[in-house]
Write a structure and sequence with these properties.
The protein has three domains: 217 residues, Up-down Bundle (Growth Hormone, Chain: A), CATH 1.20.1250; 43 residues, no CATH class; 217 residues, Vaccinia Virus protein VP39 (Rossmann fold, 3-Layer(aba) Sandwich), CATH 3.40.50. α1 runs antiparallel to α5, α3 packs antiparallel against α4 and α5 runs antiparallel to α6. The termini are far apart. It is elongated. The chain is of the alpha/beta class. β2 and β3 form a beta hairpin. The strands form two sheets. An eight-stranded mixed β-sheet has the order 7-6-5-8-9-11-10-12, with helices on both faces. The chain has a four-stranded antiparallel β-sheet with strand order 1-2-3-4. GO terms for molecular function: thermospermine synthase activity. InterPro entries: MFS_trans_sf, PABS, SAM-dependent_MTases_sf. Keywords: Membrane, Polyamine biosynthesis, Transferase, Transmembrane, Transmembrane helix. Belongs to the spermidine/spermine synthase family.
């Protein structure tokens, strides 16, 4: 048996490790860039399709070019050089990505092609550089090993394993636990550290030179973790905070902004340089509903003449509506399903919407929560907008049937819908295909759709019910006034009924209700 020298053993281990980490960083970067795109292009199938395609193209180029270079220049020093160059390609995204995306949005109207162009400019180079690592590793290992099939299979398996760890680690742990910018810096620091280590193990073959540089890189990566945000609590503490942006949080689902203007604190979700209002609290009047549609969501109480005791809400936001209902209805309790744990945290810290004995908050997808619970609710509120979009699976016939199953006899569902695009027509038509009646309440620019069983209430019947409920519950926002916003909203053309099989909500959101493209 041929004796393996220690230097070659270290080199071979390093080459196998390089294959693993090239896959790890590639997929971690893909998840990160995809998450960074959501505030600008939305989390649509177009965005992810464009990004995945560009990564695959970049990797294809990297495999081909890397393979040719490995045959012409089979030198171990090129592997650390590839990781070194990848460091700058990764850092390019947090430093120049936003400016590039904004420039693209200024000149490309169609979000599909805007996302594709942004993917090419930001993702193609790092994907190609990292993909070129594996051909070099294979070429160098085959210099000393005869079992080419075994070596090739092992390297492919290690690279794929790295991709799996990078995908799950980034989506399950890194993005939920750390700021996006810090994760980019850690990925860049990792590629830089790998370039140094691989140089020592492959080129210098284990000599201890450069240990100080490695230690410095490790210390630099550790220093990148940002301090935890300050915890706000009491009204007096919140009032004392300076005006302006209090926090920006890049969660796994949203780009969240918390801003203070005078006595008001607002929760906003970012998308395409716009900030969409989710909740506002006036610290001088903390029980008031400052956003119009949240007041009109409570008009659904008028459709339920019996006392409401069980409420479900899908989409917490700042928790203003559910807090109002819990405060106003002493006999009621509520369950809230909010997918984004960062939203739950912000709602508790700035808007006083933490869990209580009567208010349970579940960090879960709204549809999954309703599927798992066996409770029946008198009132189910749907307010799961992420910026301008509603997740498609919360808009389909199958979802509304699930909602219907979770309603107690005589139960009511109310959904907040933005009315300017063809999505509104489809949302209305889909809800109407499940519920006997769907009424519309004008809500300060939005529409609240109210679904219920039985014959349609006349205006006189609804007014009488509103008066009776108002007299019994003495609600701060008078139901008799709120139901006056009931309206008939004309529909354009033949709307698409949304199903789990076919729910083109992304394209419907781009078409104005008068058949004009949204800009």
């Amino acid at each position: 048996m041929t004796e393996v020298k220690p230097g070659f053993l270290l080199r071979d281990l390093a080459l196998h490790g390089a294959a693993f980490f090239s896959g790890f960083i590639t997929m971690a970067l893909e998840m990160m860039i995809g998450r960074s795109f959501i505030p600008y292009f939305g989390g649509t199938i177009y965005t992810w399709g464009a990004l995945i395609a560009v990564f695959l193209i970049g990797m294809t180029v990297g495999y081909v070019v890397g393979g040719r270079m490995a045959d012409r220049h089979p030198h171990g020093r090129i592997v650390p050089v590839l990781f070194f160059l990848s460091t700058f390609a990764v850092l390019f995204v947090p430093f120049q990505g936003e400016a590039i995306i904004n420039l693209i949005l200024d000149h490309v109207e169609d979000l599909r092609y805007a996302a594709l162009l942004a993917s090419i400019l930001l993702a193609a180079v790092p994907a190609a550089l990292l993909a070129a690592v594996s051909p070099f590793c294979l070429r160098l290992l085959l210099d000393r090993q005869d079992h080419s099939g075994t070596v090739s299979g092992r390297l492919s398996a290690l690279s794929t394993a790295g991709s799996i760890v990078g995908t799950l680690g980034t989506s399950f742990y890194f993005i939920p636990g750390f700021g996006m910018r810090s994760i980019y810096f850690v990925l860049a620091g990792t590629t830089l550290l790998l370039s140094v280590l691989l140089f020592l193990l492959i080129v210098a073959r284990g000599r201890a030179t450069g240990a100080a540089a490695v230690a410095a890189v490790v210390a630099g990566i550790a220093a990148l973790a940002p301090p935890a945000p300050a915890r706000a609590a009491e009204i007096a503490v919140l009032l004392a905070l300076p005006d302006g942006e209090l926090e920006r949080i890049d969660s796994e689902y949203n780009t969240i902004f918390v801003e203070k203007r005078g006595s008001q604190i607002g929760l906003f979700f970012g998308y395409r340089r716009n900030r969409y209002t989710e909740s506002v609290i006036d610290l001088h009047h903390p029980k008031a509903l400052a956003v119009a549609y949240t007041r009109y969501m409570t008009a659904a109480l008028a459709f339920h003449p019996q006392p409401v005791t069980r409420i479900a809400l899908v989409g917490l936001g700042g928790g203003r509506t559910i807090n109002y209902l819990i405060d106003s209805l002493p006999g009621a309790s509520a369950d809230v399903a909010e997918l984004d744990g960062a939203v739950v945290d912000v709602a508790a810290r700035y808007f006083g919407a933490g869990p209580t004995e009567r208010l349970k908050i579940h960090t879960a997808d709204g549809r999954v929560f309703l599927q798992r619970t066996r409770e029946r609710f008198d009132l189910i509120l749907l307010d799961a907008y992420r910026g301008p979009f509603v997740p498609f699976h919360l808009t389909t016939q199958e979802f509304y049937r699930l909602v219907q199953e979770r309603l107690a006899p005589g139960g009511i569902v109310a959904q907040n819908v933005e009315p300017t695009t063809m999505f509104f027509d489809s949302a209305y038509a889909t809800m109407k295909s499940v519920f006997d009646q769907v009424d519309m309440i004008e809500a300060g620019g939005n529409i609240v759709l109210v679904g219920y069983a039985g014959p349609r209430l006349t205006d006189e019947q609804l007014a009488a019910q509103a008066a009776a409920v108002q007299a019994r519950d003495r609600l701060p926002y008078d139901l008799r006034e709120l139901v006056k916003a009931r309206d008939e909203v004309g529909r354009v053309g033949e709307p698409t009924i949304l199903t789990d099989d076919f729910a083109p909500v992304e394209s419907l959101h781009t078409i104005e209700r008068h058949n004009e493209k949204r800009r």
